[in-house]
Amino acid sequence: MSILVDDSTRVVVQGITGRAGSFHARACLDYGTRIVAGVTPGRGGQKLDERVPIFDSVAEAKQATGCNASLIFVPASGAADAILEAAASDIDLIVCITEGIPTLDMVRVRRCLEDKKTRLIGPNCPGVITPGQCKIGIMPGYIHQPGPVGIVSRSGTLTYEAVWQLSQRGIGQSSCVGIGGDPVHGLGLQEVVEMFDRDPATKAILVIGEIGGCEEQDAATFWKTSSRKPTAAFLAGATAPAGRRMGHAGAVITGAAGTVEAKIAAFDKVGISVILSPAEIGEAISKVMAAAVS
Amino acid sequence: MSILVDDSTRVVVQGITGRAGSFHARACLDYGTRIVAGVTPGRGGQKLDERVPIFDSVAEAKQATGCNASLIFVPASGAADAILEAAASDIDLIVCITEGIPTLDMVRVRRCLEDKKTRLIGPNCPGVITPGQCKIGIMPGYIHQPGPVGIVSRSGTLTYEAVWQLSQRGIGQSSCVGIGGDPVHGLGLQEVVEMFDRDPATKAILVIGEIGGCEEQDAATFWKTSSRKPTAAFLAGATAPAGRRMGHAGAVITGAAGTVEAKIAAFDKVGISVILSPAEIGEAISKVMAAAVS
Amino acid sequence: MNLFEYQARGLLGRYGLPIPPGDVATRPEEARQIAEGLSKGPFVVKAQILAGGRGKGHFRSGFAGGVHLCSYPAEVEEVARAMLGGVLVTAQTGPEGRPVNKVLVAEAPQISRELYLAILIDRGRRRSVVVGSAQGGVDIEEVARESPGEIHRIWVDPQVGFWPYQARTLAACMGLCGSLLPQTADLIVRLYRFFCECDASLAEINPLAVIENEKIAVIDAKIGLDENALFRHPEVATYRNEVVEDGREAEALKAGLNYVGLSGEIGCMVNGAGLAMATMDILHRYGGEPANFLDVGGGADQNQVTKAFGILMADPKVRAIFVHIFGGIMRCDVIARGIVEAVTHTKPKVPIVVRLQGTNFEEGKAILHQSGLPIRTADDLADAAQKAVAAAAETR
Amino acid sequence: MNLFEYQARGLLGRYGLPIPPGDVATRPEEARQIAEGLSKGPFVVKAQILAGGRGKGHFRSGFAGGVHLCSYPAEVEEVARAMLGGVLVTAQTGPEGRPVNKVLVAEAPQISRELYLAILIDRGRRRSVVVGSAQGGVDIEEVARESPGEIHRIWVDPQVGFWPYQARTLAACMGLCGSLLPQTADLIVRLYRFFCECDASLAEINPLAVIENEKIAVIDAKIGLDENALFRHPEVATYRNEVVEDGREAEALKAGLNYVGLSGEIGCMVNGAGLAMATMDILHRYGGEPANFLDVGGGADQNQVTKAFGILMADPKVRAIFVHIFGGIMRCDVIARGIVEAVTHTKPKVPIVVRLQGTNFEEGKAILHQSGLPIRTADDLADAAQKAVAAAAETR
After folding, report:
1. What percent helix, strand, coil does chain B show, rounded to 5?
2. Cβ C165–A84 below 8 Å, yes or no?
3. pLDDT digits (tens, 9 = 90+) for B251-267
4. Within an 8 Å CB–CB cutoff, is residue D393 touching chain A?
5. What are residue B245's phi and psi, to 5 degrees?
6. CATH number, span B10-121
7. Residue B97 to residues A235, B12, B62, B120, D165, Cα–Cα distance (Å)
8. Could you give the C-alpha distances from B15 to B48, C166, D36, D182, in angstroms and in order?
């Protein structure tokens, strides 16, 4: 059990002939992910490594292979179009790794997706993994192990650090979802938390947030009104200076809601323990799980 | 009884301080139409002829006067905006007289109206009149008289000619609707025909079509599947030269549907008598009504 | 407003569509110079008129064909000389043909495949539609009739817009693959951007061609612009002056009148397009032929009536004038005064039949009668039309 | 990317927004000439820095205020001389202030009312929002806190777009009527068009002012552009070179690194923005202060690692370097080789602490150890951070 992806997920890689696309398609294949197709317009009929058929469009790929998830490596200027192409073919899950997509493109994309059942993860994210079953993204697969903790994160490498700390302690993960750091993106913290809440395999939830936006507060609102699983959270950027862009476009402080203090306050209110040091993530999860058992 | 408008209709005139707007607002008032408000941005607080209050926006006009229909004389460059403003205030019926609105503006307007219950008549049309009750448009009111014939027309002055011929013979009209001559407009021939079909006061229907498009065929499709009232039709443009069109793209979409011959054939198929001379419109209506009675 | 091919090339070029190099010439020597400036032959010389069927047309002079392939610049000059100043008659021009004042000289690449591409407004669905076919360079209407499956359409939701993936889908339907697929998709996206940004009513590329080295290119383009939107495109509105071929139409344009020249002998002046068409129809029924379509609009004033008269009377074909006004906003007494003034000043040599109906028609008729001018009036439409046809027959 | 006020004026001017005339000067004499060229005084001289609070700021020289009203061109020159080349400290610049290399000289119209207008992206609702208030020229966040009813917002459905009637509604909410209503609505529509066409992330006009003769005017404008969209705006991308005030940031930009200079003493090099922020947080916990934020990204190569080292070491504040890499795509052995090479070549005089974790971390650590260079390594994050803080303390 898991959320979003498992060993039955059939993946098409959009932009499979690019440098990043081919590299990560191979890494996913090596992990055991069912990469059943690739798409690069004008390269239809070719194959990646003589095993993954390449098509001119997602529609053709879906018709030929029945793919139901897409992994996007298309460059920023064409990424919005790639997302909409996958959505037009009613792909269930789209994971967009591409970084640098203009915000107004994402505004249009999200508006179009409102009318669809397609789910989008990202862009500018590491992707999603269900350890031992399916990796759709760029995270190092080997640091993960199957287990009870669902991780949702706005960050990339910081999530790897958290996973590492968990796996070092022998605590595995049900699924790990990096939702991406752009101002306008697909699934939000709250939506993923809700999925973990419904997933029987997930026994505890780790939330990795950061400064900017108010997704952490939205998630807190959810907990306020629902029964919930043991949860811990880490929030990066407590010491980031106000008003200076720190890499993720999403990390610009946009008002009081964006500060770590405001987010900690929101979590405190609903009784979520906020981890104060990034070195103590593994330990904190052990504690909340132990507390839940006792 | 009538369609679309009657003596309870409360009208706001958008662009009431312009030359055409003030002229026709007065003409409608003289006819007995309940013109309850006008709109000209920046002129809010003034009055037309010390009797019609002017507002800065349709929203304010609606709040203050409860208007439920709008008559638009705003110049072409701002007319699409004026239509959407009225629709945003949930005005039930919009009659847009303005001619010369860019087609792509109307494409956007129609798309926006799909999500609304607001009905649009026009643009580039004479408007709608229910004789003796309410005139929302620029037609000469005095040529009309109350009675049993519903008229729907794609033309302006040709409709006046038809009304004249009817009234001369003592045949009155339930309502007359000029749907406008632009490629993309509001209510279509078929929709108005359906309204007349449902209106108990309408005993016979006169359709005035012309070359181009395929609205006449759409109306014919309706008759094919529904019981119907005595109906006659005149189609202008039988001898118009095939036009100076250069490309063939139009014909790829609509085929030969735009010709009068094709329209006559469609009407013939469903047994609608097509009037061959524009001088015989009144006579033809007398005949179909007499045939229905006997 | 339809554009000449050379204007269409200019506009599409601004949007980055691939078009074989070339330019327009008004003199034969200029045509040769253009050819000399191009990097390679063969060259194509194309008569610039606003009508199709040029290739199979012929000049009044006897010279055959409005489109010629030439191998050398000297040949280009020769062909241009035969075309310029001539009158080209094609299946679409009618027997009177069209004057050729400009020729286009362009490189004529080797074509390996001809495709069809167009964008236009679908009135029925109220949105624009992008149309593509692997069957280009031919009569597309025939393709639509004979093998409708060969015509592919993508309707564009104006709220969502047209995205590159849709262009790729269409390009694939048009049989394109390999590097031609993204190339063509890019071209379609650019054509759509042009269509929207310039408020076009039609953008048709036929043929769209696959040329040497697997490149895609625009070989011929027909563009129509929405006249209602010219106010927001001052840069293309200037094309307007260049595209009016008919002198009478140019006059009417200046006076703000909607005029189309025809080949009959009864000059018509009507208010409203529908009534104007109905008037033409009824003249036909009684054996008459209109010399024109002229809609003076709903709010025409005395001045416009005078100008309209001037245009009708300047037409040597006109043997009778038929004025048909249904007064709504326009009062018949005002129109009657305009007619009296125009007739008094211009003293037409052909009979005039007037039907006034609607607002103040009694007063209007009285003004006409009291003027003492030789104006024939009629009350109903059938009577008026018969009188107009009879009047034209008298002077024959 | 935030723009200088004079750049913002230039861009908004292209979209037809009403802006009092003026220009930017780099020399005092130039400032005077600009004032002489303007039709009337008084004039305003404004220091051009990328931070707010200029009016209440002060120069290191002691000169007070980054915004001055002047009556005569000579006074303009005097004020410009006091500002140019100086360092302006405001509530938003931090104690180090910002260098003033340019001043804006403009007409200063009589202001009768100050309003607020802005367009930005609302992340929560995932669309742009147009914000207006009758309370302008003040701290808008305070207005939002104290009297939220005074802030009016219109969220724009990207599929429907922003229509003039919505602009009129907002203008009316801002308390405008009479001829100011359509004028302001027009300004808002133009600002929205700018926002979309130029891919802005923020367009804030504060104050928007009612000036003489009931005209509306842009008195100050703050514009942020979406860096991700600069690829499609080559014309504004060139502004990029002008807006980097910090030399280290300029270096980093060239190397494709994401760098923000801070005031601490531990030079940080981390892969990933979230991990970089967490690294800063943990240094803080152990009493350290980062000298910078530096994210080398997910796919940095040996070359970028070398360049990043160069930037860290060029900073005189840096007393220790902390390299923190979690290898995912990036292999730790590659990073280790980059570090060894950089250290070998640049011979830093400050201690270096490295934590490598993730892909090939064992191999990476081995490379560092075998190099014999004075590099301190650590396994877990807490240990590494403590070592880095201690290292910085040593050299104090």
Report:
1. 40, 20, 40
2. yes
3. 555 666 778 888 999 99
4. no
5. -70, 145
6. 3.40.50.720
7. 59, 13, 20, 11, 19
8. 11, 40, 45, 13
* CATH code 3.40.50.261 region(s) in chain C: 251-394
Q: What is the DSSP string of C166-211?
A: HHHHHHHHTT--TTHHHHHHHHHHHHHHHHHHTTEEEEEEEEEEEE
Question: Taking chain D (396 residues) in consecutive chunks of 10 residues, what is each chunk's mean pLDDT?
Answer: 92 97 97 94 93 89 94 96 94 84 96 94 92 86 82 95 98 96 98 97 94 93 92 84 67 79 90 91 94 82 81 89 87 87 85 90 91 89 94 82
Concerning whether C204 is annotated as a catalytic residue, the answer is yes
Task: Flag if B42 and D163 touch (Cβ within 8 Å).
Answer: no
Taking an 8 Å cut-off on Cβ atoms, the answer to whether D327 and A183 are in contact is no
- Does C164 contact chain D (CB < 8 Å)? no
CATH 3.30.470.20 domain residues, chain C: 111-235
Tell me: is residue D310 an annotated ligand-binding position.
no
Question: Around C273, how many Cα atoms within 13 Å sit in the side-chain half-sphere?
Answer: 20
Annotation says C77 is catalytic: no
Q: What percent of chain C has pLDDT over 90?
A: 64
Cβ partners under 8 Å of residue B169, min gap 6: B282, B283, B286
Q: Which of residues 75-134 of C touch B (CB under 8 A)?
A: 92, 118-124, 126-129, 131
CB count within 10 Å of CB B201 equals 17
Intervals of CATH 3.30.1490.20 along chain C: 21-107
In this structure, what are the phi and psi dihedrals at residue C68, rounded to the nearest 5 degrees? Answer: -130, 140
Give the model confidence (pLDDT) of C263-308 as tens digits: 899 999 998 888 999 999 999 999 999 998 888 876 667 778 888 8
Reading the block at residue B271, the tokens are 């047994």
Q: Look up the CATH superfamily of A139-293.
A: Succinyl-CoA synthetase domains (3.40.50.261)
D179 chain-B contacts, CB cut-off 8 A? 42
CA dihedral A101, A106, A107, A109 (to 10 degrees): 150
pLDDT, tens digit only, all 294 positions of chain B: 689 999 999 999 999 999 999 999 999 999 999 999 999 999 999 999 999 999 999 999 999 999 999 999 999 999 999 999 999 999 999 999 999 999 999 999 999 999 899 999 999 999 999 999 999 999 999 999 999 999 999 988 999 999 999 999 999 999 999 999 889 999 999 999 999 999 999 999 999 999 888 889 988 888 877 767 999 999 998 887 665 444 455 555 566 677 888 899 999 999 888 999 999 999 999 999 998 877
Interface test with A, best of C152, C155, C160, C165 (most A CBs within 10 A): C165
**Calpha distance B69→B96 (Å, rounded):** 11
Stated as kind and residue range, the H or E segment containing A280 is: none
Contact C322, C386 (CB under 8 A): no
CA distance D169 to B62: 14
Architecture of the domain delimited by D21-107: 2-Layer Sandwich (3.30)
CATH superfamily of C251-394: Succinyl-CoA synthetase domains (3.40.50.261)
The rounded distance, in Å, linking the Cα atoms of B129 and B183 is: 23
Residue with tokens 């090596």: A30
The model scores a pTM over 0.90? yes
> What is this model's ipTM?
0.93
CB B115 within 8 A of CB B124: no
- Contacting residues of C for B241, CB less than 8 Å apart: 260, 262
Of the residues C204, C249, C259, C265, only one is catalytic, namely: C204
Interface contacts C/D by beta carbons within 8 Å:
3
Q: Where are the domains of chain B?
A: 10-121, 139-293
Buried b (16+ CB within 10 A) or exposed e, D186-221: bbbbbbbebbbebbbbbbbbbbbbbbeeeebbbbbb
Q: Which residue has the tokens 């310029």?
A: C84
